[in-house]
Amino acid sequence: MRQIFLDTETTGLSAENGDRIIEIGCVELLNRKLTGNNLHFYVNPERDSHEDALKVHGISNEFLKDKPKFADIAEQLLAYVQDAEIIIHNAPFDIGFFEQRVGAVRQKNHSPHLWRA
To answer: Which domains, ranges and CATH numbers included, belong to the chain?
Structure first.
């Protein structure tokens, strides 16, 4: 069984209010053993982080300016997690952000094949 443990950091607490993902980390297990096939991205959110979020993750707006946008990493991320059981500590929170960003990429690129959470 292939499992992906996934975690994110964000600009704030509300995908509905425009907050965005700034970091994605994934660790792969195969038959409950670490494979070393991990995936990590810093993401340019195209907006500033809330001050309270900065206190939690410490990832500065300046640091993120030259990082890829979510649309630039979406296909690679979705291919990586395909057919795996995805394990997320705070799933409703993280899935809300993924649904918002993947939906935006799908709409912009007219790509209905992108992952639907």
So the answer is: 2-109 (3.30.420.10)
